[in-house]
Amino acid sequence: MSISQNHFISPNQLLFFIIQTQIGIAILQLPIDMFKIVKWEGWIAVIISGFCLQLLALSYLFIVSRWPQPSFFTLTKKGLGNIIGNIVNFLYFVYFIIVGTHILTLYYETISVWLFPETPKLFILLLIVIAAVYLVQEDLQLIARFYGIVSILLILIIVVQLTSYSAAQPLNLLPLGLNSPLDYIKASTLSIQSMLGFEIVLFLYPYLKGEYKKIKLMTVFAIGITTTIYVFTIISSYLFFSPDEILLIPHPVLYMLKAFTSSFVDRLDLLFISVWIVSVSTSFMTYLFLASLYVKNTLPIKRRKPAVPFVALIMLIVAMQYESNLEIEAFGDFMHMISPIFFLLLPLILGIAVFIRAPKKEAMS
Amino acid sequence: MKRWFKNTDDKNQSTDTRKKPAPEPVNADMDRNRRYIKEELHYSEDLHERTLSFANKQAGVYFFIDSVTDSDKLSNTLRSIYNRPLKNPDEVMSSINSIQVVDLSQAVARLIQGETILFFHDHPVCFSINTRLAIQRDVSQPESEQIVRGAHNGFVENIATNVYQVRHLIQQPSLTVRYEYLGKDKHTKVAIVYVDGLCDMHILEETRNRLRNIDTARLISSAVVEEHLEDHPYSPLPQYMSTERPDRCALNLLQGKIVLFIEGEAIALVLPVTFFSFYQSNDDYNSRWYAGTFFRLLRLFSFITAVTLPGIYIAIISFHYEIIPYGMTFVFKDAVEMIPYPPLIEAFFMELTLELIREAGVRLPSPIGQTIGIVGGLVIGDAVVNAGFVSSVMIIVVALTAISSFVVPANEMNMSIRLLRFPVMIMASLAGFVGIVFCLTLYLIHLCKLTSLGKPYFYPFAPFDPKGIWNEILRLPHVKPSQGSKLS
């Protein structure tokens, strides 16, 4: 019942946290993005990047567990010195804002294309932002509980796609081994972008309660599950559409479901998109949470709650600035360009710094 | 949050200047005693004074209030006093089971409760004899919670009888009863019943603390107690279950819950509860387990339909008509085409009509209530479709929704569900499925947030506990050894 208990989450909850953050916007875009680079072998690239993510996430855990701190932001200050640490923290804050904004813009784009072309952007965005603010104001444990419940919806995402297997063409996936290794690498780096969200282990580690081994296991599981769902989605859309068709279609999964009718529900894509909105909101909520965490750690405020609406407002205002599809695309490219700094470069530097400066005694808790 | 809600009602209420009278010892002078008692009771005319005399010699006086005194008991007691013509009043009184009272203010308090107060001349104490009048009705089956198979008794307005009924079902020494007196004047008696060893002591302590903090001069009913005990008084959802069934209480007590009885009310408050306990009925445990499980799942399904069905209808008609299967398109088109109103107005019109019928029927005697149901349901429904105000599909939707919302076994949850559907309808008319998802997300977050005395309300889904789902959502066979659900 005490308040301090609510700040901690269990390794099982971490599992849902990672899955819900990773699965989001990208599930609609990924099949086509992969196809553009490695044709029908996109799923191989996703598996490769899945493995890379496992390694990355495990090394993150290694870094943060090496020198336990009350929060990631204090770790950067201790590891890199106050000035550089503060700059790095601020960069992360900007990064969270950018990712949050990116999620919002893509969400609006999809909704306006598929459902409501005329509805004002602000209204559509507010729906997701209000829900996010309402949840993120609460303690971490409640956020994790919510993620746990909505993970049940992932089953629906898979089941709905199973309908397409009645028209599957296994030959669409052949021949294999057509692409050069360089293409695979290129495609994998792109698909890592779609699976962003695993980096939250860096920030959540201080709030985890449980054996280190179990934390590692659950992280591996979570990324494994996300990879499986992505691979499944990609394969089902490749099986359904022929290579010629797929290039013409922006959201293969939705088009695929649109083609199917059942006697109860005619447009499965609408069902899918309703579930997908929840997944998108959870991704957005995570970044809102991380950004508010930064504000709490930087400003002299005791609680995280008052920071949440302000951070959400910043994201909303920035997202409102992008009007045309071109701008949104440019914004997305910009995000893809800078994100390796945050999931690769900065953690690497931090890792080196931690290894040099961490006191030996506290190592490997 | 609890704190602000408290103490709001007392500031302007406390014009009532009933104060605890200062202690006043019994006087040797009979007239002073007499005056004191009469003044304290404001010369009320149901206060009676009689003299007590042995062998034509006046020995003392006694007081009683005839409206709360059982005259049979009184005359029996008096007879036994006269039959023992002993010299010493102390001896007489101790032989007939009376209580010595030294303080006159206490004597007045006892008088109000129906006891008789005796004074003897030149004696420094008075005596109180229990002559309380007890009027109560039968322990008949509660109207609002009927079951097909099982016990057919219900609680009454008397704590002792209620505790008796629970003790009758749980004959264990560990069943414990604690009394608390609530309110400014401590005039409301509340019994806290729990099974020691099963119940969480922190929760018990917290409950008692919160009860003691109730500081109001109003009449304390179960709703007042409930709101003071709630963690989230502003939530639309009930956080305590009230029941009139002893077997339901016993079942909950054995699961480690606490039960509160309030003097003068025929209900028991069960706490802490989860969302899913509102969806359990005793019939589940008294029927075959397949049927029990099936009906439980059906009730949970009814929650979803009761909250979302009108919203889904509005969303489909206003935005997503593509989702209707091809074969049904014409059915819908025919029904909806000539309706002059937008779906939201249509839905609100029908939903409000339905609520009106329900509200009108609730308090009427049952023969008239049935007439209202027939007039409202059949006549209005048929006429409204024929007149072309509302589509026939809408009637189906509203009827289904209404039936779903009445499926819930607990009345207070039923009220909440009916309110929850209106925001969904409004959002559905603004943003279709996206709006419904938005509303449901908010509801789900709210359910995750809620706690009942600090225990998570949406257990076993949040926090997720597979074992709890077996026990709370499904109804497993009784012969299977239970794993015992635990709250994490």
Structural class of chain A: mainly alpha
Please estimate the helix content of chain A.
over 70%
In DSSP terms (H or I, runs of 4 or more residues), the helix count of chain B works out at: 17
Largest sheet of chain B: 5 strands, antiparallel
Helix tally of chain A equals 16
* Distance, first to last CA of chain B: 24 Å
Q: How big a fraction of the residues of chain A is strand?
A: under 5%
Query: In order across it, which strands form the biggest sheet of chain B?
Result: 1-2-4-5-3
Poorly predicted tracts of residues of chain A:
none
Q: How can the largest sheet of chain A be summarized?
A: none
What radius of gyration of chain A results from the CA coordinates? 21 Å
CATH topology of chain A: Amino acid/polyamine transporter I
Low-pLDDT residue intervals, each spanning 5 or more residues of chain B: 5-18, 483-488
Query: How much helical structure, as a percent, in the residues of chain B?
Result: 40-55%
Compute the average pLDDT of chain B: 83
GO biological process, one term (chain B): spore germination
Region (Disordered) (chain B): 1-30
Protein name (chain B): Spore germination protein
Family (chain B): Belongs to the GerABKA family.
